[in-house]
Fold this sequence. Notes:
The chain is mostly helical. Helix 1 packs antiparallel against helix 2, helix 6 packs antiparallel against helix 7 and helix 13 packs antiparallel against helix 14. The model has no long low-confidence stretch (mean pLDDT 89).
Amino acid sequence: MDVFLGEWANLLIRWMHLVVGIGWIGTSFYFMALDYSLNKLGQKQGVLGTAWQVHGGGFYFVEKYTVAPPQLPETLHWFKWEAYLTWVSGFGLLIVQYYIHARSYLIDPSVLPLTPWQAIGISLGSILAGWAIYEGLCRSPIGQNTTILAICFFALIMGAAVFYTHVFSARGAFLHVGALTGSIMATNVFAVIIPNQKKMIAQMIQGKTPDPYYGMVGKQRSTHNNYLTLPVLVMMVSPHYPFLSAHPHAWLVVALILIAGASIRHYLNRVDAGDDWKNYGWTAPVAVGALMIAIFVTAPRSSGGGAAVSDAEVLAVTQKHCVMCHAAKPTHEGFTEAPKNITLDNIASLRQYAAQIYVQAVQTNAMPLGNETGMTQEERDALGRWVNAQK
């Protein structure tokens, strides 16, 4: 029953994460597109630009003020809870999936033998440290130079990727790069963008002219969030695609995803701005090139040559490493039924799911979870030779 309720908790939190995340991403994309589409010619004093828009059978007229309107309106519509709840639900998933089941999903003894509490402590401490470094960079003189700041932030994420791949399991490492980046994005909203807006409102209430500095800083952080969105989305779904992380160059894949995602986002932003293709066309080949390199880097390796493997030998391997989960009645504490209803306790089932076995246990080393049973490379190669012999 505990496992059953845990699965429901996982599903409901994940559903919430998707819903509020879509809301957050949607507002980010919309307001960036709105900013870039503003007509800035012939505007009245104090107005940066205007835009006529049509949607759902209605017409809308939007004005953006250079700093703030002359008078504070009675009602302001804030866009903050989507960001807050995305982080809260994401952290809830981290707890339910990776902290409670740290030995299965977060720890790999072959990478670094950790206790669950050690792994959780490293997770929390590293996320906090990553945010502190980013915040320090933004508040330092480096934060005044967009290019240098971008390079430093890229280096920060790369450093985190290398660190995580030497501490956590493959899927745990990749997921944590996304968790760190997503936490920085949410904190930008919670600790910078919204407080700065409130400071401007407080100045207006006091009859003062709002300081444009607060708006400029908020816009900077909002732009960071916009460019990070696409890479973070890939990292958050990466546990479903173990080929991204289960190899020695996972940190390089992180770099390529950042380059591709940010390039695609820049391309879309400049399209919204109506720029000449000559000014942003370079982003398309950069994004495609990064993705092609990522495909090459993650290409499966050969399982190697060697002696033929008998049915009895492969059954011995799966009995030792697979059937604790993939059986009619699993003995693993985390499952009450076989994952995806796949049982691997007989030769007929092994032949039926040979392709999935090859991907999960030979090509990517994603299974067993966290390599709890200590499956060796020799056993993986033997399993691969048996699968290849079935073709």
